[in-house]
Amino acid sequence: MSAARMLAARRLLRVPGPALTRAVPTGVFSLPRATAPAVLSRHFSHPDFAPQSNISGAEDNKVQDMLKQLVSENKVVLFMKGNPDVPQCGFSRAVAQALADEGFSDYAYVDVLKYPEVREGVKKFSDWPTIPQLYVDAEFIGGCDIVMQMHKEGELAKILPKPSAAEGS
């Protein structure tokens, strides 16, 4: 680190001269990858910082019933951020694109950004913490990582409903 940068860093950090004498390589204070999540969650997580639901018990039950009805009445449902034409998140875009790559466009979707109660409720409904979420025949398939792996391995095409002859005409 140049003398000018060292002086600027001392001023910004309000560190006395001898305490900041050389740059420290970035990796010196990092944790091994295997232990980092456990250490960080043990030391930096507190129940006060856990996500809090803004939905009352009665409203939560109503949302859960609505979700159950939605996934049972539609062959394929994608809970995503945005819509298939204009996704608002890269993960949602990837899942919508995987469905398009399979030639499948006849599915219901819910833009969870428009419905915060659904955004919270679907995570509880599936016991899965992230969006997007894909359901086929009322069964939770997974989030982006699982859907993309299935798409890559050809498994996604096998579980998607085939268009009926009546739909084609």
Automatic annotation (TrEMBL):
Glutaredoxin domain sequence ranges: 76-141
InterPro entries linked to this entry: Glutaredoxin (IPR002109), GRX_PICOT-like (IPR033658), Monothiol_GRX-rel (IPR004480), Thioredoxin-like_sf (IPR036249)
Pfam families, sorted: Glutaredoxin (PF00462)
Keywords annotated in UniProt: 2Fe-2S, Iron, Iron-sulfur, Metal-binding, Redox-active center
Family matches, as Gene3D superfamilies: Glutaredoxin
Matches recorded under PROSITE patterns: GLUTAREDOXIN_2 (PS51354)
Signal sequence annotation: none
Domain of life: Eukaryota
GO CC terms in record: mitochondrion
MF GO annotations: 2 iron, 2 sulfur cluster binding; metal ion binding
Name of the protein in its database record: GLRX5 protein
Origin species: Symbiodinium natans
Organism taxonomic ancestry: Eukaryota, Sar, Alveolata, Dinophyceae, Suessiales
Encoding gene (name): GLRX5
